[in-house]
Amino acid sequence: MKTKHTLAAFVALMIAALPALAGPKWYTDLDEAKAVAAKENKPILVDFTGSDWCGYCIKLHAEVFDKPEFEAFAKGYVLVELDFPNKKPQPPEEKAKNKATQAKFGVSGFPTVLLLDAKTGEAYGRQSGYGPGSGPKAYIEKLSAFKNTAEGRLALGAEAKKAAEASAKRAAQGIKIRAAMEAKDFDAICKLLDEDFVDAQGSRKAIASINKALMSQRIDPANKERALKWADQAITECAGDEKMLASIKSMRDKIAAGTNLSQPVPVKPATKPAAEVKKTDKGA
Q1: Three-class DSSP category at 45
Q2: What's the pLDDT score for residue 159?
Q3: β-strands 78-83, 44-49: how paired?
C-alpha cells in the first residue's frame, strides 16, 4: 500500500512539473498576446518564422529559444510565434492575419524577431537573421540592447528607413542589370556590380567578381577566357575564407570544363518502370 501511495505521489509530481518542462508559452495570435501584455505590463516578443522550410529559423529555435537561458529571459516578455509554413497545415484565418502583420511591420526575411511595446504595440526592437552557433547568450544580448524609449523607437525607425532605401536601391539596380543583360552590355553590368559592392571588404569583393564570371557566361557562353578571368579574380579576393574559396574554386573548375553555370540545370523527368506485360494463354 505504501508503495502505491509513493508511486501515486511521484506521478502527481511529474504531472505538475509538465508545464515547466514544456518551456515558455508561445501565442500564435498577436491580438490575444496584446491583451495579455497589457494586463501583465510586459513587452511582446514576436518571432516571424518558417517552421518547416527556413533552416536558420529552425536553428534559432533549437540553439536559442529551446535553451534554459532564453526561458529565463522570456519571463519578462509575452512570446508570439507567427509561422509562415510551406507545407504544414495552417488555418486560413491565421495565415491571413500573419500576412497582414508581416506587411504592417515590413518584415521581408526570416527569421525576424520584433519587440513591441505592451500598451501601444509599437515596435522598438528588430533582430533579423541568425548566425548558426551564436547561442542564447549572444542573441539575448542583442535583444537586451533594444530600449523601449522614444530614442530607441526613433533609432529603429531610422534603421527601418535605411533598410527600405537599401532595398529600393537593390531593386532598381536589379532592373538596370537585367536591361544590360538583354542588351548584352557586359561593361555596363560590371559597372553596376562595382556600384553594388563599392563598400565591400575582404572576401565579399569576391562575390562581385564571381557574379561577373556568371554574367559573362550568360551573355556570351563561348567567351570562356573572360569568365575564367573573373573567376580567378574572385579566388584571389577570397583568400583566407576557406569555405568561400572552396566554393569558388569548384565553380571555376566547372567553367573550365565547359559548364555554363548561368543556366539552370535541367531536371530529368522521373521514369516509371515499364508495366509488366500480362501473359495470356491462347491455347494450342
Answers
A1: strand
A2: 79
A3: parallel
pLDDT at 89 (0 to 100): 94
Residue 263: how many CA atoms within 13 Å on its side-chain side?
13
For residue 193, the Cα-to-chain-centroid distance in whole angstroms is: 24
Q: Are 71 and 78 in contact (CB under 8 A)?
A: no
Residue 23 three-state SS: coil
Task: Give CA–CA dist 239/243, Å, rounded.
Answer: 10
Cβ atoms of 44 and 78 within 8 Å: the answer is yes
Q: In whole angstroms, how far apart are CA 248 and each of 14, 101, 223, 261?
A: 54, 39, 19, 12
Cell matching residue 123 = 515596435
What is the pLDDT at residue 21?
52
pLDDT score, position 11: 46
Helix (H) or strand (E) holding 78: strand 78-83
Predicted pLDDT of residue 264: 63
In the predicted model, residues of the chain with pLDDT beneath 50 are 7-8, 10-20, 267-268, 270, 272-284
| 135 Cβ neighbours under 8 A, 6+ residues apart | 63, 64, 67
- Reported as a single tens digit per residue, the pLDDT across 235-248 is 999 888 888 999 99
The rounded distance, in Å, linking the Cα atoms of 13 and 184 is 73
Rounding to the nearest 10 degrees, give the CA dihedral for residues 62, 66, 72, 77: 90
pLDDT at residue number 161: 80
- The grid cell for 228 is 575564367
- What is the spatial distance between Cα 96 and Cα 82, in angstroms, rounded to a whole number? 11
d(CA 244, CA 206): 9
pTM of full prediction above 0.70: no
Max CA separation in the chain (angstroms): 98
Bridge-based pairing of strands 112-116 and 123-128 is antiparallel
